[in-house]
Amino acid sequence: MPDDENDGQLDELERYRRAAEDALQQLDWCIGYLHGIRKKSEAQTLSRNRQAIRQNLLHRDREPTPA
């Protein structure tokens, strides 16, 4: 039984990870949109927030700034 419980926890963890990655992709779209409509300050603020989420919550490496 402990393996079943552990598998369930891993499945739940994977669902949360996927949801976080999906949310970051949506945030990427928003950042691109704001940049496209020349709201660069807002896009930069969201980009910094995105990096903080990626590094502090998901424990991922910092991504290079898009060109």
Characterization of the model:
With 67 residues, the chain is mainly α. The protein has one domain (2-57). It is built from 2 helices and no strands. Helix 1 (2-36) runs antiparallel to helix 2.
Give the number of domains: 1
**First-residue to last-residue Cα separation:** 51 Å
Secondary-structure class: mainly alpha
SS field, number of helical segments: 2
The count of DSSP E runs of length 2 or more, i.e. the number of strands, is: 0
Q: Beta-sheet strand percentage?
A: under 5%
| Largest sheet properties | none
Rg: 16 Å
Helical fraction equals over 70%
The run of helices and strands is HH
State the shape: elongated
Mean pLDDT over the residues? 87
**Poorly predicted segments:** none
Distinctive features:
single chain; 67 residues; mainly alpha; 2 helices; elongated
